[in-house]
Amino acid sequence: MKVLQFSGGLDSLACLELLKDTPGLAVLTASTDGTYPEREEYLSKVEKAHPHLKFFQVKTNRKLERFGHPVDVLPTKYSLAGRLTQGSPLRYQTHIECCGRALWLPLQDAVKGLGATDVYRGQRLLDEHKAPIRDGHQEGGITYHFPIEMWTREQVREFVEAKCPDLVPNYYDQEGSSRDCWDCTAYLKDNVIRIRNLSPERFKTVSAVLNQWREDVIEETRWQ
Fold first, then answer.
1. What is the pTM of this model?
2. Strand 2-5 and strand 142-145: pairing?
3. CA neighbours within 13 Å on the CB side: how many for 162?
4. Is 59 exposed, middle or buried (0-12, 13-18, 19+ CB in 10 A)?
5. Count of domains observed in the chain
6. Other beta carbons less than 10 A from residue 220's beta carbon
7. CA–CA separation, 90 vs 84, rounded Å?
8. Helices 200-221 and 188-196, interaxial angle, to 10°?
9. Which of 20, 82, 139, 170 pairs as cysteine with 88 (C-beta 3.0–4.6 A)?
10. Amino acid 177: pLDDT
11. 156-176 core/surface letters (b: 16 or more CB in 10 A; e: else)
């Protein structure tokens, strides 16, 4: 089986448009407990536009109360290590741990469960965050393909707007990344505008975490 891992972002949408006529292709996505409410509606819209494809969705729980909020800079004192060695309250985890537990590992398990021989992803070489493998990599009986590996962000945007404009989310007019978890407190280089576009109540929730995190980072890095 051939599987496209679909995040709902423009890169994966470009891959879907490129691969939609591939025989036996299945589309696999993951949604966490922090997913935007409109995500289900969007995924349904994408599925209806491709009735000949099989769609699978994995739903996960990030368990933030157990592992802490994801952050770009980890104040060790308030991480799991800090709780175990200093008795500090647990507040944070690395964004890699959070995404790995809630998205990457569940998707990989689903890929294996589907018996996939080929996996397609919208990874580009210009991405700041990407897996350390390249197009054609083989591992565990699976070949990984990155159809838009050499594309720029601008090329992706132009392609999807030309090929499937009805499936391009409106928020991309301002935001530069896909909407995964509304309460994500990491990837701030890409997420500042997305956070500012939250409803007042949700913005207040996320801001409270970020303000506390900033104080904790300053506390941990203060020196004389």
1. 0.92
2. unpaired
3. 7
4. exposed
5. 1
6. 15
7. 9
8. 150
9. 82
10. 82
11. bbebbeeebeebebebbeebb
Q: Are 187 and 129 in contact (CB under 8 A)?
A: yes
Q: What pLDDT is stored for residue 223 in this prediction?
A: 78
Q: What is the DSSP letter of 22?
A: S
Q: Which long-range contacts (CB under 8 A, 24 or more apart) does 105-114 make?
A: 106/30, 106/58, 106/60, 107/5, 107/28, 107/30, 107/58, 110/28, 110/30, 110/56, 110/58, 111/3, 111/5, 111/28, 111/142, 112/140, 114/1, 114/3, 114/26, 114/28, 114/56
Provide the CATH number for the domain around residue 171: 3.40.50.620
Q: Encoding tokens for residue 4? A: 């496209």
**pLDDT over 90 for what percent of the chain?**
90
Query: What stretches in the chain show pLDDT beneath 50?
Result: none
Tell me, what's the pLDDT at 222? 87
The β-bridge relationship of strands 138-139 and 142-145 is antiparallel
List 27's β-bridge partners, or say none.
4, 55
Spell 61-100 as b/e; 16+ CB within 10 A means b: ebebeebbbbbeebbebbbbebeeeeebebbbbbbebbbe
Q: What is the reported pLDDT for 224?
A: 59
- In the block, which residue shows the tokens 């565990």? 140
Count of other CB atoms within 10 angstroms of residue 139? 9
State how far the Cα of 135 lies from the Cα of 132, in Å rounded to an integer: 10
Residues in the chain: 224
Report angle CA 44, 61, 74 to the nearest 5 degrees: 120
